[in-house]
Amino acid sequence: MSAEDDDVPETLATYLRLRGLEPSPRAKRRRRRRGNDDDENQPFAPGRDPKGVGDVLDKLTHDSGWDEPMARADLVRRWAEVAGADTAQHTRPVALADGMLTIQCDSTAWAKQLQLMRAHILTQILQRFPDAGVSSLRFIGPDVPSWKWGPRAVPGRGPRDTYG
After folding, report:
1. What is the pLDDT of residues 4-17, one digit of tens each?
2. Fewer CB within 10 Å of terminal CB in the chain, N or C?
3. What global pTM score does this model have?
4. Residue from 88, 95, 126 nearest 110 by CA
5. Are 104 and 140 a contacting pair, CB within 8 Å?
6. Residue 103: pLDDT band by 50, 70, 90 thresholds?
């Protein structure tokens, strides 16, 4: 017994021990003995419950760094849910680079209409697929040939001025 134990009356010490606020000397010995055992071999130790297949696969994809590629694939696969069935019939995602999702439309009218709905569609994407890394949207019309190649093309008449 320490000096502190002498100051506390026996009835108060018993009360504290029964309320679990102060462990009994016997519990200290038990805890000390139990601490030497290997936790993973104890049958009812915390963390020993079986895990579901979905939880195991989520942990595997997160640990492997596959969250972003899988979210991007899910976004393309579920484009009809994000944009709506009617809109998805006339559009399709074609590229995702540097956070910009490029969506090709059947006509320039569809591209212009979707530009007006850009905030709503981007909100849907960010809510459903936050790991995809989409930060902006770009809507393009039908695939037509162009003299402009790449994002850093020089403005001007282009190759026509070299014909004569």
Report:
1. 555 667 777 777 77
2. C
3. 0.56
4. 88
5. yes
6. very high
